[in-house]
Amino acid sequence: MTRSKRLQAGWRRALALAALVALAATTHPAGAAPAPQEQCGPASLAADWPQRDLLPQALLPVARWYQRAWNSGWGPLAATYPPTVPPGGCDPVAWERARVVAVARRYLGLAYRHHHVPAWDPPAALVGPAGAGPGLDCSNFTSWVYNYALGIRFTSNVQQQADGPLAPGRVLAPDEPFAPGDLLFILPEDRAEVSHVVIYLDDNTVIDSHGAYGGVTEHPRGGWYLTHFSHARRIVEQGNTIVGAELDEQPGKIPAG
User: Beta 196-202 vs 205-210: how paired, if at all?
Assistant: First the structure.
């Protein structure tokens, strides 16, 4: 089995496990209220995934997905998911940050591809060998995670995510500590402009989709991720305003990741 097929198999196993967790989370004895830690805990983060998975991933109807190589082979643009409401009694900011992390981890093992939605699975005959099969690149991964997790859809162009009128959330001050779910932007070797983005998990760990790792992985934040760090953006916080993506956005420059 090739590495790409192993990654795809691992991703599908992760999705199946997440669905089982979500199903268990919706089952309680009649008339029994969930305990506070259960109401706001890991099971609550995945409780609506089965229903969310029934929603269309893209603006384009599935029946038309493979009529041609849409958007230069990047596939159909993502649809906007409905907003998520944290369970009552939970700290909404803490719950939403945990939800972003849970959704990001759901895609561990998904291959690295320049695609807009994870279900886009084009054959090599349509897009060429490099683009065949499902996957997401770095900025499409971060955009997808926030869209699916919270119904916050922003541009999937890595430079536009980092700065400018379409960039989501706000830039953190240099001395401001990171929080789970923050977007960390990385410069290339020549430091010319941002070329990669990751999701912060904790002081030692990030999750991203990178070609060098073969796709979505969780790994230490070290080496290039530290030495070429540019800045961070925070999307989830009290009173924050989200800037959404234009529906006709173009892929732009290919991320270095």
Answer: antiparallel
Beta-carbon neighbour count of residue 138 at 10 Å? 27
Closest CA to 182 of 228, 107, 235: 235
Can you give the pLDDT at residue 243?
A: 54
Q: Quickly list DSSP for 42-72.
A: HHHHTTTHHHHTTS-SBSS-GGGTTSS-GGG
Which three-class secondary structure state does DSSP give residue 111? Answer: strand
> Under DSSP, is residue 124 helix (H, G, I), strand (E, B) or coil?
helix
Quote the pTM value: 0.83
> What is the rounded CA–CA span in Å between residue 121 and residue 132?
7
Q: Residue 22: what pLDDT?
A: 43
Structure tokens at 257: 């990741």
Q: Which residues of 119-129 are buried (b: 16+ CB within 10 A; e: fewer)?
A: ebbbeeebbee
- Name the residue type at position 217: T
Token readout for 132 is 């065949």
Residue 207 CA from chain centroid, whole number = 9
> Mean pLDDT over residues 38-54, rounded?
94
Q: What is the pLDDT of residues 168-197, one digit of tens each?
A: 999 999 999 999 999 999 999 988 899 999
